[in-house]
Amino acid sequence: MTSHQGDLALLQEPVAQRLLQSKVPARLAYVWTDGTPRVVPIGFHWNGSEVVFGTPPDAPKLKALHDGDSVAVSIDTDEMPYQVLQIRGRVRVDTVDGVAPEYAAMARRTMGEEAGNEWVTNLGAMSSRMSRVFLTPEWVALLDFQTRFPSALERAMEKAAG
Question: Structure pTM?
Answer without folding.
Answer: 0.90
